[in-house]
Amino acid sequence: MTTELRVLRQTEWDAWYGQLELAFGGIPEAPEERSLWNDLTETERSLGVWDDGACVGTAGAFSFRLAVPGGSVVPAAGVTMVSVASTHRRRGILTSMMRRQLSDVRSGGEPLAVLTASEPAIYGRFGYGIGTQQMSLDIDTARVRLTVPEGTDGVRLRISDPVAAVERCEAVYARRVPVRPGMLARRPGWARLPVLDPESERAGASPLQCVLAERDGETVGYARYAVKPDWDAEGPKGIVQLRDLEALDPAAYAALWRHLFDLDLTSRLTTRNRPVDDPVLHLVSDVRRCSVRVRDGLHVRPVELGAALETRTYARPVDVVLDVSDPFCPWNEGRWRISGDAKGASCERTGDPAELALSVRELGAAFLGGVSLGALAGAGRVRELRQGALAEASGAFLGDVAPWLPHGF
Ligand SMILES: CC(=O)SCCNC(=O)CCNC(=O)[C@H](O)C(C)(C)COP(=O)(O)OP(=O)(O)OC[C@H]1O[C@@H](n2cnc3c(N)ncnc32)[C@H](O)[C@@H]1OP(=O)(O)O
């Protein structure tokens, strides 16, 4: 088999994207969704694999800016639209695209690559670690009560058209980004994503709705959701399907949740993607009736290891020599001294004796501050070579906010 791997040409997008749709089951996307991804595709960063004129492999990358511990927002390649034709699987095409892509990301100067995986088992071999988790909830709002903080009654709620309210929501979102590692600063064109609402994907639910939280005329929060009506012999049992919710203070936050809990003719609230430390878990009367489930979120790969570890700050002072293995990107292999604190860090090559041994994948997992190196050591994935080095590094890497990505890409 001779296949050609090369950068996508603009005129090839339809065939390229068609291959991706086929790999995901073959149901064509709604026209507005397809058009959004067409506009957002960075053609010069997209790879295609071709066999006798047919597209058999796809992989794209977005030029993101990622929030990291300490509040900086740094360049990161957002790996996306990965597929291989069913006729060409398990022959190494994905591996060849990943190799080329990571090499391109390195040449372009981005220290990190990130992705959300269709299946979590695929990307570890390429050096990606699971850096964030996301929580889904299915809340019995007929039984669960909320205890809201002082000031909640002073928040004014206003129903708004989601598209008309986008700018106000985006202003709130932008203020949340540096506070929560894992969030992405919105790039031009991306504000269309949270209000994308194809009728064909509503499955009996309402069009997207939006409620704004306001104080003194300023927007201090928003929630976007749909309502799926449901009735049985006992009466109405509608479901509130929460898509996203952000707020700038606890009272606005609680007011939005209370609004969603109290919607007439509903008795359930579902949401697929909340941070695992979502304060709502501390507002509810009965966490068991919230059906909490957790899954992997953003997978993180340090591409240029030293530069990546220098972009963030560290919760406690750390000065540890890491012995890093990275067979897929061998330029990262070897010993690095990470030395930093809450103000900043340096990470440079060293000839000093190694104090912790681990692979780049563990550093990707720990990078955003949500996964403990101590826990990874418990699984045998980090080895302590100098007594005390594990506790020192583990405490330094951990953050006080669970990293989280609110949306897929
Ligand atoms: C960021 C994103 O876009 S996520 C979307 C990923 N795409 C999809 O899930 C669409 C459907 N699946 C596919 O298109 C393909 O099966 C892909 C892209 C997942 C894999 O492509 P392939 O060309 O078959 O992978 P390749 O041959 O390079 O396999 C490399 C290794 O990964 C393993 N692997 C591939 N897919 C999977 C999987 N789904 N689960 C576990 N391991 C996998 C292979 O077994 C192989 O392992 P080995 O080196 O030990 O033999």
TrEMBL record:
Binding site for acetyl-CoA: V82, S83, V84, R90, R91, G92, I93, L94, T95, S118, E119
Entry keywords, A to Z: Acyltransferase, Transferase
Organism: Streptomyces lycii
Signal peptide residue numbers: none
Keyword match Acyltransferase: yes
Name of one Pfam family that matches: SCP2_2
Active-site residues, as the UniProt record annotates them: Y123 (proton donor), F409 (proton acceptor)
Domain N-acetyltransferase: 3-149
Protein name: GNAT family N-acetyltransferase
Subunit structure and binding partners: Homohexamer; trimer of dimers.
Domain of life: Bacteria
Family (UniProt): Belongs to the acetyltransferase Eis family.
InterPro entries linked to this entry: Acetyltransf_17, Acetyltransferase_Eis, Acyl_CoA_acyltransferase, Eis_dom, GNAT_dom, NAcTrfase_Eis, SCP2_sterol-bd_dom_sf
